[in-house]
């Protein structure tokens, strides 16, 4: 009890000492046979050494592997990072832990010292070696002979020699297979209490030695590793006479303790087995199982007849402390009997302690050299004392034989750090011979000694000291080179040569300064510029002449004082700003940034616009430019002026920069269609046209610029059969599928073009009529089809309609139907109100007028047609050709009620040609020909016409105006006479339902009418004299056009 208590107290004390000594343990797991340079662990992270507070270390952190001289370590450690890698020598678990029990875990241990001494730690690393499947299971022999009696009953079992696999666990033997058993024999695997798998041969059919006395087959053994390994042996079975009783051991488990100094021939134990048979069948044969270790086979002998086990070779507990001997007893018949003998080798104090010195400071010729200024606790070596004996015989103590300034500090069990215990002084003692003694606790005790030499090295151990560790100076800029700044001085406590001091500039010192090596005078050798660098901070060094020399440093801070020697600097020589033309007054145009490298008042900059400029203002401090005007890109696209920057120095400096403000276009123009030029035109498509053929190209233009003029085309209605597709960028309408009989006839496509303007795109639509037929045999009938297609209502929400993204959503359909219904009702209502409010003189003019008036097109962009009307005389309104809505502006000559205000009246323009029937315009293409009639010759004026001025209006919202008349580009349509038109309405603005011919101008022109309005404003005020009509005509491309009902040309907004 006292011994146990003492051992416990010793263990606790040892643990406390280890904890306080900076010793640590770390465990890692590594697989055997790993290649070189495989990362195992990182001591810096795993030991949390990165969390150690930053100290002033004498040298960088270092990890040093401590191992015995001559040993080849199985791992490698990076001294700078602490990363552990596998070494070139591969780890073989079976070789490293040979002699131990199979199920025992295998470890490999090393020590690592963490340096420098300020953070010293000794780390014991234990590597658990994991087994891999690098060994195949092998039978004890390639040919296995077994004898089986011929009267063996079916399902009788016979033991087969087990295979041996040095690997453990799943990598060991897992399965046996019988190959070519010929259905006479089978194989079963049983597991012993020790976990071994034993193969057993099973008789599956009756045997007859006279019929067949020998069977030859193969037996295969497999392990469970990956990749799986296996081997085979030839199994030769001889059929013999009957032996129906197996031997039986009196004891199947025996444990024996033997001292390791037992002589050779000493009896270990006597095994006894009996057999109920008689004669030859009762003779028992004892033998070791092939599963016992090779060491056990070498050390022990088994008498095959008597079962006596004796010592064959000297025992050594240190080699293997125990042995398992599996003994089999067989009478040559059935399964042999098994007995397990466990031999424990007890320790004898037959080994003296050994001292292993592993140097942390590398010795020179076997001697450790230490500087006299080495700090306390400087680690010199790791001393490991070991004793192969066990218990008290293996307990070792280590100590030095006399008083020296060194000590042994325990870190682990039987491991000590040799370190300095006092400061060294070369002048008093120059060399130490340290004798290390190790003794065990055996009776009698055994001991061992070792000698370690330490030499003390003399050092220059006093560094110079500055009288001022921090020196602060100031100097105005633009100084003269060579200006003296100050004198630096230092002292050294050493004497003689070690006290001589040289002054040096540190490596961080700029080239603008110089320091005299002997006097320490600091000068400025260059002209300094505060704007380039305001402060200079550098070190100066004082170095003695000792070997090695010592030095110390001081910090010098030189501050440069400012002078106003710089003009303000703009970030750019020229500034270009881009603003939208709808930018409001006093909005922000941009920001001018200016800097001045000077300091204080010398860098205070004020901004102003050079010369007088009332259009713009600039904030003197922030540099923000704001307009005092409204922008209009059409009037002026850019503005240019200069900005002046002036600093606040006593002698001020200034500079200027050019500013250009560019007015950016906004999306305020809708796309206009050029082709087709009319909703009444059509294009013939032959049924034999191949799919992929371009049948027509839609073309539109946009007066905006950039993305506001980028156009995209789409078919939004009419392509119900999906027969046509349109290219969204080129406007090419392509036949998608081969035409069939059901596709013949007129196809009315509603094509939409929209720009990519921001923040909101604008769009227009046009009707493209494609007539699918072999030829045009009845032009009049085609005209009627086109006319009827124009009368077909168009989807009211055409702005959002797109055939590329159809939807069957019930709610959307209902909303569309309701919106369409409301729109139709609103149109009918407005039409009724307009007709009810018509001016009587306009109705009379429509009835009495018999001749058509034409506007003669000219090549100019703007034409003024002046028409005068006589007072108190009937006026005849133009007939039947509705070009578009126009705005009539009237100014009363006098009247108190009107006060000179203008009255605007929206009216349609009607033109007709009396002799249009002479020409067959239905079969003539719209391209100009030499024999085309000159429409100017046919222009007639039956009575004075009122003068109107056509002016552009704000575009209407699509929800208030669905159908807009397409500009009659290059083409005018009229009836040859009123009698040919069958109109049931007397409304001068209604459109009669009849076919009209087409007249082509000699000069391609287009009449630009104003966009549709949200609502038609009609005035009941009589029209006064001298009203002007202005019609803008632009050249446009030619395209096929067929005459329709006069004034019925429509396009969708």
From TrEMBL:
<dbReference type="InterPro" id="IPR013164">
    <property type="entry name" value="Cadherin_N"/>
</dbReference>
<dbReference type="GO" id="GO:0007156">
    <property type="term" value="P:homophilic cell adhesion via plasma membrane adhesion molecules"/>
</dbReference>
<feature type="transmembrane region" description="Helical">
    <location>
        <begin position="813"/>
        <end position="834"/>
    </location>
</feature>
<dbReference type="GO" id="GO:0005886">
    <property type="term" value="C:plasma membrane"/>
</dbReference>
<comment type="function">
    <text>Potential calcium-dependent cell-adhesion protein.</text>
</comment>
<dbReference type="Pfam" id="PF08374">
    <property type="entry name" value="Protocadherin"/>
</dbReference>
<feature type="domain" description="Cadherin">
    <location>
        <begin position="250"/>
        <end position="355"/>
    </location>
</feature>
<keyword id="KW-0732">Signal</keyword>
<feature type="domain" description="Cadherin">
    <location>
        <begin position="140"/>
        <end position="249"/>
    </location>
</feature>
<keyword id="KW-0472">Membrane</keyword>
<feature type="signal peptide">
    <location>
        <begin position="1"/>
        <end position="23"/>
    </location>
</feature>
<feature type="domain" description="Cadherin">
    <location>
        <begin position="362"/>
        <end position="466"/>
    </location>
</feature>
<dbReference type="GO" id="GO:0005509">
    <property type="term" value="F:calcium ion binding"/>
</dbReference>
<dbReference type="InterPro" id="IPR013585">
    <property type="entry name" value="Protocadherin"/>
</dbReference>
<feature type="domain" description="Cadherin">
    <location>
        <begin position="467"/>
        <end position="570"/>
    </location>
</feature>
<keyword id="KW-0106">Calcium</keyword>
<dbReference type="InterPro" id="IPR002126">
    <property type="entry name" value="Cadherin-like_dom"/>
</dbReference>
<feature type="region of interest" description="Disordered">
    <location>
        <begin position="1034"/>
        <end position="1053"/>
    </location>
</feature>
<dbReference type="InterPro" id="IPR015919">
    <property type="entry name" value="Cadherin-like_sf"/>
</dbReference>
<protein>
    <recommendedName>
        <fullName>Cadherin domain-containing protein</fullName>
    </recommendedName>
</protein>
<keyword id="KW-0677">Repeat</keyword>
<dbReference type="InterPro" id="IPR020894">
    <property type="entry name" value="Cadherin_CS"/>
</dbReference>
<keyword id="KW-1003">Cell membrane</keyword>
<feature type="domain" description="Cadherin">
    <location>
        <begin position="53"/>
        <end position="139"/>
    </location>
</feature>
<keyword id="KW-0812">Transmembrane</keyword>
<feature type="domain" description="Cadherin">
    <location>
        <begin position="571"/>
        <end position="673"/>
    </location>
</feature>
<keyword id="KW-1133">Transmembrane helix</keyword>
<feature type="domain" description="Cadherin">
    <location>
        <begin position="685"/>
        <end position="795"/>
    </location>
</feature>
<dbReference type="Pfam" id="PF08266">
    <property type="entry name" value="Cadherin_2"/>
</dbReference>
<keyword id="KW-0130">Cell adhesion</keyword>
<keyword id="KW-0325">Glycoprotein</keyword>
<dbReference type="InterPro" id="IPR050174">
    <property type="entry name" value="Protocadherin/Cadherin-CA"/>
</dbReference>
<dbReference type="Pfam" id="PF00028">
    <property type="entry name" value="Cadherin"/>
</dbReference>
